[in-house]
Design brief:
Radius of gyration: 23 Å
CATH architecture of the largest domain: Sandwich
Helix content: 40-55%
CATH superfamily of the largest domain: Jelly Rolls
Strand content: 15-25%
CATH class of the largest domain: Mainly Beta
Strand order of the largest sheet: 2-3-4-5-12-7-10-13
Structural class: alpha+beta
Number of strands: 13
């Protein structure tokens, strides 16, 4: 059994957690505008980082990424106005537990957790596997004071928790599998190479985007309970298998009925699930992947355009050129000449 590194922390916002982690690991905090970061040494983790952004006093975010040799448990204790937390996990499995509740957030999954959380809370990070997660903390009083809206258009149950309009005795928990844009937003923040104001402006926009995706997904699920048809892991696995089949057979991809039979779910579930997980229809996703591969082929050599078109599944070089220009704004020939 792996030993666990327990890190006791006082409940606070994301930047407060960063400062405490820096002290715990005896490392400096790197501050760049709104970004606060602790980079772990190679002896403790592979590309291990804790990153926080304080968007304003009402909203902040904590990003955890890396491969840790042993599990880490962040034990959050003390009196602190309970925020509502929005979890997005790209890799690994995040576990959250307290005396009141316990839940897991798995890869490509998101969760919304809130209520009158007064007990100690543990956030568990797995050991010996790649991990990527972002937790957005929405501090209710400040958030709603900052909004100048006549109406907050949220489902009533979530609105009561977020706005603190009712005495919520039990925790609010919503778990759902989100489409890739939510995970991509977290990845985009980490890959963003600018510093200072540009970095912070980009990151805060992505944090707001992720917050929207969570709230919108909850709103849609309340409007149509059938939208959660693929919550079970095996259903998600079928959709991921379908994506793998498509990207490995760009030249001669299966039809949607064939693809549904290959992964073992019906066509409607496949089409609806694929759009929600990957953010596009199957045909749009396939087209984008084909054109991305075409760009790689043209940049890497002098392969004739008609041959590139054939390799990615287009019988007509003219039709391929038309689709390519629609996506990239230049013809394949101009793209090859570096005019993009």
């Amino acid at each position: 059994m792996q030993s666990v590194k327990l890190v006791p922390l006082k409940k606070s916002g994301a930047t407060g957690i960063i400062q405490q982690l820096a002290k715990e690991f005896e490392l400096p905090t790197q501050v760049d505008c709104l970004r606060h970061e602790v980079v772990l040494p190679d002896s403790f983790a592979t590309e291990g980082r804790f990153v926080a952004y304080e968007v304003d006093k009402s909203l902040d975010a904590l990003i955890i990424t890396g491969k840790f040799p042993k599990p880490i448990e962040l034990l959050l204790q003390g009196e602190f106005p309970p925020p509502i937390a929005f979890y997005t996990v790209g890799k690994g499995t995040l576990k959250v537990s307290s005396k009141r509740t316990s839940f897991e957030v798995k890869p490509l999954q998101g969760s919304i957790h809130g209520g009158n959380i007064s007990t100690a809370e543990t956030i568990s990070i797995p050991g010996n596997e790649d991990f990527l997660a972002m937790i957005i903390y929405l501090h209710r009083d400040q958030f709603f004071n900052n909004l100048d809206c006549e109406q907050v258009n949220l489902p009533s149950e979530l609105h009561e928790v977020v706005a603190g309009l009712a005495d919520v005795d039990s925790d609010f928990l919503f778990q759902e599998i989100f489409h890739l844009p939510a995970v991509n937003a977290v990845t985009d923040i980490l890959l963003q190479e600018n510093t200072g104001m540009l970095n912070s402006t980009f990151a805060t926009a992505k944090i707001h985007e992720t917050l929207f995706l969570h709230l919108n997904e909850y709103k849609k699920s309340e409007a149509n309970n059938n939208s959660r048809f693929y919550r079970r892991e095996e259903q998600l696995k079928s959709i991921q298998d379908a994506e793998s089949i498509l990207t490995s057979s760009l030249q001669e991809p299966p039809t949607i009925p064939e693809l549904a039979r290959m992964v073992g779910i019906n066509q409607q579930s496949l089409k609806q699930g694929f759009r929600q997980v990957y953010g596009d229809s199957i045909n749009k996703y396939l087209t984008d992947k084909r054109l991305e591969q075409a760009g790689i082929l043209m940049r890497s050599g002098e392969m004739p355009i008609n041959e590139v078109a054939s390799i990615i599944g287009y019988n007509s070089a003219g039709y391929f050129s038309k689709r390519f220009k629609k996506k990239y704004g230049v013809s394949p020939k101009e793209f090859r000449q570096g005019k993009l």
